[in-house]
């Protein structure tokens, strides 16, 4: 899969005696846009706070860019990481340039050229000499400014906590396109938390699904797509002969048995399927598609049963 940017090992965290993270294992590879999805209160922000060094686990550990969480050199790894936790820390009374100047002071960055670079990188270079206050920016512009602030260390790993929350459709597209550009043009790895899988599906290359503090599943974008493709469902009283008939259309690997019959890929011509099954005792045949939301809910329900 490639180099590992972040790997957690059995991370657990308690607040006031309540377990909010329970034995979480996850892996983010270099170049990923890792969609970290789960309902509100599932533990996403807690994970982000842990890897940012804002809080500490009660059990387990993580490795960030090859450095273990209790290694003093983890500080060097965090310098290559930028994070926006919950919302960007923007001074509304300052313009874009001065917001980044304040960030540079906090980080001990003396190269003022970094400010122009960060604004250019997120597509806000025009604001370098503009006195417009950040409080008057659109939500999409504020989110992009927040990403510019996270990039000030020239980070190659960005962690964004619900970056699309509250944005209008234009702002969502704006931020989504920026994430894709930073990933593809600059090779920046992303960990993006959200409770909206449908929105993440437009940008993510891998996913981690978390619920009630448990990591339920990690899955690639291609695997998710395969789970949600159109299928043809066939119900029958004679599975043996129907299966033999289907083998004239598809390979054995493409035939999935169900309690009622079989499911086969939905890209087949319907007329060819009907022709192959002619004369056999078919009790039902229809096309079906699992939506991303349906898949997510089925994974969550299964995870809760196994937790």
In short:
It contains 11 helices and 14 strands.
Fill in the keyword field for this structure:
single chain, 307 residues, alpha/beta, Rossmann fold, Alpha-Beta Plaits, 2 domains, six-stranded mixed beta sheet, four-stranded antiparallel beta sheet, elongated, transport
Describe this structure in words.
This protein is an alpha/beta fold. It has two domains: 4-224, Rossmann fold, CATH 3.40.50; 229-289, Alpha-Beta Plaits. It contains eleven helices and 14 strands. It has helices at residues 44-51, 74-78, 96-107, 113-121, 139-150, 169-186, 197-200, 221-227, 239-246, 270-276, 292-306, and strands spanning 4-15, 18-29, 33-37, 59-64, 67-68, 81-84, 157-161, 189-194, 206-211, 214-220, 230-236, 256-257, 261-265, 282-289. Strand 12 and strand 13 form a beta hairpin. It starts with a strand and ends with a helix. The mean pLDDT is 89.
């Amino acid at each position: 899969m490639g180099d590992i940017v972040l790997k957690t090992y059995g991370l657990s965290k308690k607040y006031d005696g309540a377990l909010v993270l329970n034995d979480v294992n996850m892996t983010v590879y270099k170049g990923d846009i890792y969609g970290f999805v789960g309902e509100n209160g599932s533990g996403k922000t807690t994970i982000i706070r842990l890897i940012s060094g804002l809080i500490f686990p009660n059990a387990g550990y993580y490795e960030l860019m090859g450095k273990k969480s209790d290694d003093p050199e983890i500080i060097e790894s965090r310098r290559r990481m930028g994070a926006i936790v919950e919302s960007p820390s923007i001074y509304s009374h300052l313009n874009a340039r001065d917001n980044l100047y304040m960030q540079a002071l906090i980080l001990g960055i003396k190269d003022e050229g970094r400010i122009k670079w960060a604004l250019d990188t997120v597509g806000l270079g025009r604001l370098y000499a503009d006195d417009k206050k950040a409080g008057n920016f659109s939500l999409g512009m504020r989110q992009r400014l927040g990403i510019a602030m996270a990039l000030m260390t020239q980070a190659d790993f960005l962690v964004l906590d619900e970056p699309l929350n509250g944005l209008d459709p234009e702002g969502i597209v704006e931020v989504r396109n920026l994430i894709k550009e930073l990933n593809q043009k600059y090779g920046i790895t992303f960990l993006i938390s959200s409770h909206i899988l449908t929105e993440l599906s437009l940008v993510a290359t891998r996913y981690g699904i978390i619920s009630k503090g448990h990591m339920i599943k990690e899955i690639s974008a291609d695997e998710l797509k395969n789970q949600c493709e159109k299928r043809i469902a066939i119900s029958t009283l004679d599975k043996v002969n129907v299966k033999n008939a289907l083998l004239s259309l598809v390979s054995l690997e493409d035939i999935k048995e169900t309690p009622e019959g079989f499911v086969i890929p939905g890209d087949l011509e319907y007329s060819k399927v009907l022709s192959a099954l002619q004369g056999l005792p078919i009790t039902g045949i229809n096309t079906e598609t699992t939506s991303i939301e349906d898949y997510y809910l089925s994974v969550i329900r299964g995870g809760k049963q196994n937790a």
